[in-house]
Design goal:
Shape: globular
Order of helices and strands: HHHHHHHHHHHHHHHHHHHEHHHEHEE
Largest sheet: 4 strands, mixed
Radius of gyration: 24 Å
Protein name: Glycosyltransferase RgtA/B/C/D-like domain-containing protein
Distance between the termini: 78 Å
Keywords: Membrane, Transmembrane, Transmembrane helix
Mean pLDDT: 93
Helix content: 55-70%
Strand content: under 5%
Organism: Candidatus Woesebacteria bacterium GW2011_GWA2_40_7b
Number of helices: 23
Strand order of the largest sheet: 1-2-4-3
Length: 490
C-alpha cells in the first residue's frame, strides 16, 4: 500500500469533475419524482414531526437512528431532500476518489474504480435515486478509512475515525460492521506479535465509535425518551433478523437463526483464509476482501430483498471490479472469488430489480411532453395521484395543527404531502401491526380523535367503526378512499 498522506491540497483532476457532473445529471430526474417511495415518506413525516417539536421515538416512531430524520427535517420536503442527497453523494464520490488514489498506484485503476462507484451509488439499479440511509452512511465510513489508512496514523485520527463510524451508525445501525473490518485488517497485517498495539488502537477506535452514540443517549434522556429511543433505534432492529421468514418464528432459536450463524461462519472462514495466506496477498486485497465479507454480512442481516442494502458494499465492489478490469497480476484472477460472492447474494435472496433504462426513458418522455404529469406520476405507483388528491383536500380543509389518521399502506405519503400528522406515534400500517396492535391504537385514537379519518376499501379497520359511526361523517370520496370528518360540537 502506498505510504503517503491523504491530507494534502484538494485538487480534483478534470476527469473527476466530469464524473461528478455525470452524477449530478443522472440525479436530476430524482428531483421530479412524486411522493411515492415508502421509506422516503416515513423519513419526511418524522422530519415534519421534529419540525413541530415532537420528540422522536416517544411522540412519533420509526426504527432507525435519528440522523436521517433530522436530515428530512432540515430538508422540509422531498425536492430539497433529494438535493441534499445529491450534494452529499458528490462529496462521497470525491472522498472515494481520494481513498482510491491512496490505495492504488495506477491512475487507470483509480479512474475505473471511481466511475464504477459513482454509477453504483447513483443509478436506480441499487436504488441510488432514492433517499436511503446507506447513501448517507458510506460517506463518513469512507473518510474514516482515509484516516485509518494514512501513513502517519495517530491516536487522534483513530478516535476521529471511530467517531465517523459512529456517525455512520446513527444513520443506520448495520454501519457498525465497518468497525471490525479495520480491526481484522490490523490483525492480519500487523500479526499477533503486535497484539498489544492492535488492542490499544481497537479500544481507541471503539471509544470514538461509542462517543456520538452516547451523546444521543444523553439527549434523549433529557427529552424523557431514552427507553423509547434505545428500544426503537436499536433493540427493535434485532427483530429484523430473518424477518423475511415469518414462518420460522415459532422454531427454536438455533434453528430459526441457522442462516445467520452460517453467514457468520462464512465471514470467520474467509477471515481465517486471509490470515493463512496473508504473506502471499497484498494489503489491498486483504482489506477489500474483509470489507466485502463484513459488508455482505451486514447487507443480509434481515434477508430482505432491497437492492439499496448493497450500497454498503459498493466501496470494495468498486475496488475489486477495477482490479479485475485494469490489473495484470495473480490477484486479478483472485478477485473473481469475492465478486462471485457479491453476485451470489442478490440472486440467492431474489433482490428486486429496477431498470435504469426504463427510469431514464420515462423521465425523458415526461420532460419532452410525450406523457403528462398524471401519467408520469402514476407510472411510479397506481395510488400516487389519489394520494395527491387526498393531500390537496386535507390542506384546503384543515390547519397544520389538525391531526389526520389514515389506514392504508400509503398513509405516510399522505401525511408527508399534506404536512398533517397522525394523532398517534405510528405513521404506517406495519408500525401498528408490528409494534402495537389495531385494538390498542383504536383506543388511543378514541382518546384523541383526529379531525379526519381516512379508510380505503382494501384496508378495513373494524375497531374504528363505532367511533366513526358516533363522531364522524363521510365528507369526501377519492377513488377507493373514504374521508371522514369529525362532527362539530355545539
Amino acid at each position: 500500500m502506498p505510504k503517503k498522506s491523504w491530507i494534502h491540497k484538494i485538487h480534483l483532476p478534470a476527469w473527476v469533475v466530469g464524473v461528478l457532473a455525470l452524477v449530478f445529471i443522472l440525479r436530476i430526474p430524482s428531483f421530479f419524482e412524486p411522493y411515492y417511495y415508502g421509506d422516503e415518506m416515513i423519513y419526511l413525516t418524522l422530519g415534519q414531526g421534529v419540525g413541530q417539536g415532537l420528540t422522536l421515538y416517544k411522540d412519533i416512531h420509526d426504527n432507525k437512528p435519528p440522523l436521517l430524520y433530522l436530515m428530512a427535517a432540515a430538508a422540509g420536503n422531498l425536492f430539497w431532500f433529494k438535493v441534499i442527497l445529491t450534494f452529499w453523494s458528490l462529496l462521497t464520490v470525491t472522498f472515494f476518489f481520494k481513498l482510491a488514489k491512496l490505495l492504488f498506484k495506477s491512475e487507470k485503476t483509480v479512474k475505473v474504480a471511481t466511475i464504477i462507484f459513482a454509477l453504483l451509488t447513483t443509478l436506480p439499479l441499487l436504488e441510488g435515486n432514492t433517499v436511503n440511509a446507506e447513501l448517507f452512511m458510506i460517506g463518513p465510513s469512507i473518510i474514516a478509512f482515509l484516516l485509518l489508512l494514512d501513513e502517519k496514523l495517530t491516536s487522534k485520527k483513530i478516535f476521529l475515525a471511530g467517531f465517523l463510524f459512529g456517525i455512520a451508525a446513527l444513520f443506520k445501525t448495520p454501519a457498525l460492521f465497518d468497525v471490525p473490518i479495520i480491526v481484522f485488517y490490523w490483525l492480519v497485517t500487523e500479526g499477533l506479535t503486535n497484539w498489544k498495539k492492535v488492542f490499544k488502537d481497537t479500544l481507541l477506535l471503539l471509544s470514538g465509535f461509542i462517543f456520538p452514540i452516547l451523546l444521543t443517549f444523553v439527549w434523549y434522556f433529557f427529552r424523557g425518551a431514552l427507553p423509547e429511543y434505545v428500544k426503537a433505534a436499536f433493540l427493535q432492529n434485532v427483530g429484523y433478523l430473518s424477518s423475511f421468514r415469518p414462518g420460522d418464528i415459532q422454531k427454536p432459536f438455533i434453528i430459526r437463526n441457522a442462516p445467520l450463524f452460517t453467514r457468520a461462519f462464512v465471514v470467520f472462514i474467509g477471515s481465517a483464509i486471509l490470515w493463512f495466506f496473508r504473506k502471499k496477498l497484498s494489503k489491498n486485497f486483504v482489506l477489500f476482501s474483509l470489507w466485502t465479507l463484513f459488508a455482505l454480512f451486514a447487507v443480509t442481516l434481515s434477508e430482505r430483498p432491497y437492492p439499496h442494502y448493497l450500497i454498503q458494499a459498493a466501496v470494495p465492489i468498486s475496488f475489486f471490479m477495477a482490479m479485475f478490469f485494469t490489473e495484470k497480476s495473480f490477484e486479478q484472477a483472485l478477485v473473481v472469488l469475492p465478486l462471485a460472492l457479491v453476485f451470489f447474494v442478490p440472486v440467492y435472496y431474489k433482490y428486486y430489480n429496477y431498470s435504469s433504462y426504463a427510469y431514464y426513458l420515462r423521465f425523458i418522455n415526461f420532460a419532452t411532453g410525450k406523457i403528462n404529469k398524471l401519467t408520469y406520476f402514476s407510472s411510479f405507483a397506481s395510488t400516487v395521484n389519489r394520494n395527491y388528491e387526498i393531500a390537496n383536500f386535507l390542506v384546503s380543509s384543515s390547519f397544520a395543527s389538525d391531526r389526520v389518521f389514515m389506514w392504508d399502506t400509503d398513509s405516510a405519503a399522505v401525511y408527508a404531502l399534506s404536512r398533517r400528522l397522525p394523532p398517534i406515534k405510528y405513521v404506517v400500517d406495519y408500525h401498528i401491526n408490528d409494534f402495537s396492535g389495531k385494538s390498542e391504537v383504536a383506543k388511543q385514537i378514541e382518546a384523541n380523535p383526529p379531525k379526519f379519518i381516512i379508510l380505503t376499501t382494501k384496508y378495513q379497520y373494524l375497531e374504528l367503526n363505532e367511533l366513526i359511526k358516533e363522531k364522524y361523517i363521510l365528507i369526501q370520496q377519492v377513488e377507493d378512499a373514504d374521508i371522514y370528518v369529525k362532527k362539530t360540537t355545539t
